[in-house]
What does this fold into?
Amino acid sequence: MKVYINGKLYEKENAKISVFDHGLLYGDGVFEGIRVYNHLVFKLKEHIERLYESAHSITLNIALNKAELSKAVIATLKANNLSDGYIRLIATRGEGDLGLDPRKCKGKGSVIIITDKITLYPEKFYKNGLEIITVPTVRNLPEALNPQIKSLNYLNNILAKIEAVNAGFDEAIMLDSLGFVAECTGDNIFIVKKNHLYTPPQCMGTLRGITRDTVLEIAKRDKITAHEHVITRHEVYISDECFLTGTAAEIVPVVKVDGRTIGTGKPGPVTLHLMKKFKELTKKEGVRY
Ligand code: PXG
It folds into this structure.
């Protein structure tokens, strides 16, 4: 697998950057995760746009413009002869010294594109649904490090993941600082109540997920009423259905939260409908290469 770094392709073993890169030293950079389905890059424009928004917010200039970066993504996929997989886009502040000051970072920063075969969640998660828990670590405060910024500093989410794994679960609900449901460690959350969809608004501790937006689009088209509304843990517990959305996970049903069975304890009809429609969309929509 070849890795793109600053305009050149390197074999995996030789794909290296400086230990002085502030992306490593401080998590000073941004990233995106994108899926490719049968030679179609799903929502490439949206992912590129979000990457540049994250970069703009942390005053990071990406050396390439959006069109150039999109081209580089396609070139990397072609070089690796990949038809289905996952793309990780990374832009860092670049090489600096051992101080925080970004002005010390010389050059244009690093742009890295890694492609890989996708490691899917086990099939049983999609068939039977996930059991998840709420963890103590709350999502970053928007006024400290806004969750809208997909920064290279993912410790907030990793700490929550560790708490879930230590308790024997694969995914966790993270609350916002007010105690409302924010999102999971790498996925957004939805509930279904009386055939209406609810997902937390993105103003609090929630990333505006591209899969989340896609689900809202499908819902609108299929006349399923959706609300972006604050959600409490109680509302999750008494929901009819619950599911998570993310580029890696796509749509995964949740059947138990904090020991409470959700609905019938099986993936529900609205979730199954959205999973089917999402799959159909990934087969026909995207940038072809
Ligand atoms: N919330 C968070 C905190 C995320 O990191 C999502 C929601 C879903 O967003 P999209 O746009 O993908 O629908 C993400 C996505 C992983 C992994 O290994 C997941 C993400 C990033 C990196 C790794 O599961 N994020």
